Structures are given as structure tokens and as C-alpha cells.
Amino acid sequence: MSVTKMEEMDLKNIVTKIVREVAAGTEDMAIPVEMSARHVHLTPEDVQALFGRDAQLTLKRNLSLPGFLAEERVSIVTAKGVFQNVAVLGPVREHTQVELSATDAFALGIKPPVNISGDFTGAEDVYLIGSHGMIYAKNSAIIAQAHIHLSQEEAEQMGLADRDLVRAELEGRRPLIMNNVMIRVGEGMHAMMHIDMDEANASGYDSAKRARIRK
């Protein structure tokens, strides 16, 4: 049975309408927001330098996304400031990374870039002190760019891809609109937005905070 041009146009219009309705619905999905305080990721070599020969990170509790909070803690030190008892997150990585807020960076007297995790372009240098030693963590300190984790299925449903930039509207008693929020799609992930302490304070953060994606 042949399809006329008129029928073909009608079919395209119907499909387009459905796609737009689905996209609008998923775009309005409320995503949980989690505050990420200052913390450190370490390489295996730096774990041993800080906590002793053959040391490994000790699981304290699992995080809401893949990874865990370790029992071990470090101090972050610069010529102008220090933060003690800073959380260490596992598992180990290929490059030591220190994640700070802009307020943290000001207190330490450094000016790290706003980068996505794993991007060390322009990253600052700090000292890290553990229970058994100290390291010079060169090119390690960044201010983490706000981002939204999604599973591959969630990303496809929303018409998004890894490293897309979107606008996020944070709901609550102090609504906040954030631009240039990066989408991170990965195995084992699920919908979760991560913001730092400064962004949390600006938006009146609580555990019920939700965000809506605007493309």
C-alpha cells in the first residue's frame, strides 16, 4: 500500500509532536541535588606517601554514586592557609585532584580554575599532609564545575550526551539558575546534580533540593 505525500507529511507532524512532548516532559524531570564539600582524590603512590608503605584507602561508607568516603583524612596546606581533616574519596585515580570552592581557594590564597573533574588545565599546587607524610600535589587543585550525572539511558531519554552544557534551575526557598552545567554520562551513574559549598549556600541547600534541566 503506497503512502501519499499528504499522509507522509501528517505522519512526520505526528512524530514531531510526540518527540517534542516527550522531550518537554523529560526536561521537566526534577533531579536530586547533592552538595560536594572540599575533598581529595589520590593516586596509589600518593596514598602510600601520605599514609604509609603498602597503605590502601579504607572504606568508611559508600557514596550515592560509584565511589566511597575513606577513613583516611588529609590536611591541605599553602603558604597562606590550611584546611585540616579534609575528606578523601576513593577509589584511587591516575592523578591526584583537590576539589575546592571559590571561598576555600580564597582562604588558601590560590586561584584555581573552574574545571570539570579530570581537567587539570591551569590547576593550582598545594601541599597535602597525611598521618605518615607530606606530598607536593602539583597541578592538582581545581574548583569543580557544577555538573549533572546521568546514566546512558537517562541521557538518551532526555536527548543529551556526555559533556553537553545545560541550564539548571534549582528549586526551593532560594531558587537559583545556573548556566554552563555539564552533563556527565557514565556507567553505574544515575540522575544527580553536584554543586559545591558556595553554590549550595547561594541556593539555600537542603537534602530535598531538586533541579530541572533547561537545554
Would you kindly provide a brief summary of this structure?
The protein is an alpha/beta fold and 215 residues long.
Give a verbal description of the structure.
This protein has helices at about 5-25, 45-50, 100-110, 150-160, 195-200, and strands at about 30-35, 40, 60, 70-75, 80-90, 95-100, 115, 125-130, 135-145, 145-150, 165-170, 175-185, 190-195, 210-215. It has a six-stranded mixed β-barrel with strand order 1-13-10-12-11-14. It has a six-stranded mixed β-barrel with strand order 2-5-4-8-9-6. The chain is globular, with a radius of gyration of 21 Å. It is an alpha/beta fold and about 220 residues long. The relative contact order is 0.19.
Write the layout of secondary structure elements.
Layout: H1 5-27, E1 30-36, E2 39-41, H2 44-51, E3 59-62, E4 68-77, E5 82-90, E6 97-100, H3 102-108, E7 114-115, E8 124-129, E9 134-144, E10 147-150, H4 152-158, E11 165-170, E12 176-185, E13 192-196, H5 197-202, E14 210-214
Parallel strand pairs: 1-13, 2-5, 6-9, 7-9, 10-12
Antiparallel strand pairs: 1-14, 2-6, 3-4, 4-5, 4-8, 8-9, 10-13, 11-12, 11-14
Essential attributes:
215 residues; six-stranded mixed barrel; alpha/beta
User: N-to-C terminal Cα separation, in Å?
Assistant: 40 Å
Q: How many whole angstroms does the radius of gyration measure?
A: 21 Å
What is the molecular shape? globular
Biggest sheet: strand arrangement: 1-13-10-12-11-14
Number-wise, the strands total 14
Order of helices and strands: HEEHEEEEHEEEEHEEEHE
Major beta sheet summary: 6 strands, mixed, barrel
Stretches where pLDDT is under 50 for at least 5 consecutive residues are 15-26
What share of the residues lie within helices? 10-25%
Mean pLDDT: 91
Q: In DSSP terms, counting alpha (H) and pi (I) runs of 4 or more, how many helices?
A: 5
Structural class: alpha/beta
Query: DSSP strand (E) fraction?
Result: 35-45%
